[in-house]
Design a protein that fits this description.
Blueprint: H1 3-25, H2 43-62, H3 82-97, H4 118-139, H5 148-166, H6 183-190
Helix pairs in contact: 1-3, 1-4, 2-3, 2-4, 4-5, 5-6
């Protein structure tokens, strides 16, 4: 168990939710159909996927409703305000995590690995939100919402959960981060994303 993550997973989850919320808020009206680092998915489809994943975590924890649409087959169409659409999903997720004890050892998750310790389960949820925040920000010309302080604990989570998920198509194969990679670049490369380097 990571003592650092045990103590800080609520902060990491909140920061990741905020990153996703900020990325969606920053999408301009013409940006919803833009291609993203998620192959074959538009910004709207990544939004649908990310929102669906947050609802799935809430459902696993609370026994409440699961996403009404398959997060891995998003339609590319959201009825109503995209910001409100995401807010409902993030509220459900945050509400569910508020019921979880910090040191719970068996927290249900919508992942094939099955129940996990609270810090790792919440970290998986945070990882999903944070990386899709980066996808959307990158696709729409926004600054990266990932910081080194977020990337370090997210990498700890990623190295524990991602390998089995690659077989399900949840993450692409890892890329070479390069010798001069910082924490953010290392995380993105590990998740199969090619970071945009500042010129």
């Amino acid at each position: 168990m990571s003592e650092t993550m045990t103590a800080s997973w609520r902060t990491l989850l909140a920061e990741s939710h905020d990153a996703l919320r900020g990325a969606i808020t920053g999408v301009t009206p013409g940006g919803w159909d833009a291609p993203t680092p998620c192959e074959k998915w538009s910004v709207t489809q990544v939004l649908q996927h990310a929102a669906g994943d947050q609802i799935a975590y809430a459902a696993a924890i609370t026994g409440g409703p699961w996403p009404s649409e398959d997060p891995f087959s998003p339609s590319g169409h959201v009825d109503g305000d995209p910001v409100a659409y995401l807010a409902a999903a993030l509220d459900a997720s945050a509400g569910a995590w508020a019921t979880v004890d910090d040191r719970a050892e068996q927290v249900p998750v919508p992942l094939p690995q099955g129940p996990m310790p609270a810090w790792l389960a919440a970290g998986a949820c945070a990882l999903d939100a944070a990386v899709h925040a980066w996808d959307i920000a990158t696709a729409t010309g926004q600054p990266s919402p990932l910081t080194p302080a977020m990337a370090r604990p997210l990498m700890e989570v990623a190295t524990r959960i991602v390998e089995p998920l690659r077989a399900y198509g949840a993450y692409a194969a890892a890329l070479d981060a390069g010798d001069d990679a910082d924490d953010v670049v290392m995380l993105l490369a590990y998740l199969g994303r090619r970071p945009v380097r500042a010129s």
